[in-house]
Amino acid sequence: MRLQNRLSMRGNSLHDTVKLRICALCIAVLMSATGCGKDFDASGYVQALLDLTFQGEISGAAGFMEDASEEALMKAYQDSIDRFVAGNITSGMDIGELKSSRFAELVSKIFLTMRYGVGEAEKTGKKEYKVTVDIWPADVFVNFRQMLTEDSLKMAEKIKAGEYEGETEEETDQKILSDIINHAYELLDTAYMDIQYGDKETVTLRVHAGRGEDASVDEDDMDRLFRKILRLDES
Fold this sequence. Notes:
- This protein is α+β, with helices and mostly antiparallel strands.
- Helices cover 56% and strands 12% of the residues.
- It has ten helices and four strands, in the order H-H-H-H-H-H-H-E-E-H-H-E-E-H.
- The protein has helices spanning 4-10, 13-16, 21-30, 42-55, 59-62, 70-88, 97-112, 140-160, 169-193, 219-229, and strands at 115-123, 128-136, 201-208, 216-217.
- A four-stranded antiparallel sheet has the order 1-2-3-4.
- Strand 1 and strand 2 form a beta hairpin.
- Helix 1 runs antiparallel to helix 8 (140-160) and helix 7 (97-112) packs parallel to helix 9.
- It is elongated, with a radius of gyration of 20 Å.
């Protein structure tokens, strides 16, 4: 049965896609930031990037943009949330626009709870800076993964016992898919409601100042920050 194979895959989806697509998208959005040399506000740049990504806050990002409208920034934020859902939760399953939007709304709420603080920038070269970010890692996706794994085992037993048998294989698959998606949403919501934070950790981001596409935050540094604040390496 095609969907039965998803039960063994869905528990690993968070770990398999730890390179968050939301990170790359937001970096691309802010690569058109203005400013260069000693006048470049590297700390403000990082703050704007994190606020756009986690809070959906566009005012800070707009201050670093030359041409992007508020609508374009908000669309970039919403698209990044959708990509995160597709890449890390629904695992590419076609679940329909309504259910996808419910997951996106829930992920937005989860991201709003992320705790971080941007420190002062240290200039390390003509156009190079280092910016420290204090983070308090959240356990929501760790707990979600654990509950998802347990739920997958229970569903596998139900399938084995014939509880999902339909008149056709397609009908059976639809029943299984419906339960997978509904359970995943309930489990993620439970993990969100019970969220706890770990001790403070510090991540250093390397920032390159410049105009247009010259301005950027090191993608590997951003990836490490996302892994740590969402504890994806543990999920």
